Recover the amino acids of this structure.
């Protein structure tokens, strides 16, 4: 299970950088961030763990941005606001999930994302 995303008052951990792979390497299904070339199992575990943490952190951050966008799109002050069903359709979510994401995004935008509502990024997923 992913760890909760750090909040505004907590420093965000910086996982290993995700470097883009050259197109020819990305096209090779056996190639994955050069892990296949690491022979030492200790080094392989270390690098694979770094990558897993980086992907988790990236996914958590992306979910936060999804929630912010959903909240902005659902804002009743917008003349072109979207319903939860419309947001769900655009993001390929269920309508219930879209409603939760809108609420989570509103919490993030207001700076109250950790008020006990249980809607951290890990809770939404």
């Amino acid at each position: 299970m992913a760890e909760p995303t750090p909040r505004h008052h907590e420093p965000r951990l910086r996982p290993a950088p995700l470097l883009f792979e050259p197109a020819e390497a990305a096209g090779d299904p056996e190639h994955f961030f050069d892990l296949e070339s690491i022979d030492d199992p200790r080094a392989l575990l270390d690098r694979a763990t770094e990558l897993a943490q980086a992907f988790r952190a990236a996914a958590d951050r992306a979910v936060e941005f999804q929630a912010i966008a959903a909240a902005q799109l659902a804002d009743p002050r917008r003349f072109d606001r979207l319903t939860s069903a419309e947001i769900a359709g655009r993001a390929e979510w269920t309508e219930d999930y879209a409603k939760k994401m809108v609420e989570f995004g509103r919490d993030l935008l207001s700076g109250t994302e950790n008020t006990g509502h249980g809607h951290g990024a890990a809770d939404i997923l």
